[in-house]
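Lab notebook, bench 4. Still working through the backlog of constructs that have no structural model yet. Next entry is a single chain of 88 residues. Request: give me the structure tokens for it.
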Amino acid sequence: MHKINYIRELVEYIKKNLKKGYTKDSLRWALMSQGHSRIEVEKALKQVEVDLANTAPVLKTKPEISYELVEPANLPKKKSFWKKLFGL
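Model written out:
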């Protein structure tokens, strides 16, 4: 029971600091340098990913991608490689 609470505390710590703008890698190394085991930190990070995925909004519609070709205007025509080579 103690270990579950410990992991939950790490999860809350990571979530709070992700909201502040820290990266997962920086939090991983900070926690390990403070003496937390790599396995426990990785478990907590995986749980954070699961929690955040469950709270993420689901998109109802697909985004529509539109594009248009833009032609450059008034550019001088280039000579071909062969015309440049033979001076034509």
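Notes after review: The two ends are 86 Å apart (CA to CA). The mean pLDDT is 86. Flag for follow-up if needed.
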